[in-house]
Inverse folding.
């Protein structure tokens, strides 16, 4: 058997910076937390992998060139594991 690892970056785009800091912070934390919780309830992705989980949450900012507006973002890193038989590779 081969051990296969998947490493994904999931980018969550939050509210625009025009929202107040308090409103934006609450929305950002809740949205990233809800996505992490959803991914953790589906640890096998309905049987498609052996095991998967969020390995990190990293806040940041993204600037869109077309509109020149800044968006608050969170990068979730996710890792999943699977196996493949030698004969099937």
């Amino acid at each position: 058997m081969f051990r296969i690892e998947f490493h994904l970056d999931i980018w969550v785009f939050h509210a625009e910076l025009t929202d107040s800091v308090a409103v934006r912070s609450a929305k950002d934390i809740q949205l990233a937390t809800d996505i992490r919780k959803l991914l953790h309830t589906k640890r096998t992705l309905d049987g498609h992998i052996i095991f998967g989980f969020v390995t990190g949450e990293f806040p940041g900012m993204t600037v869109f060139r077309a509109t020149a507006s800044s968006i608050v973002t969170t990068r979730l890193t996710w890792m999943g594991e699977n196996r493949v038989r030698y004969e099937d590779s």
The CA atoms of residues 43 and 52 lie 5 Å apart.
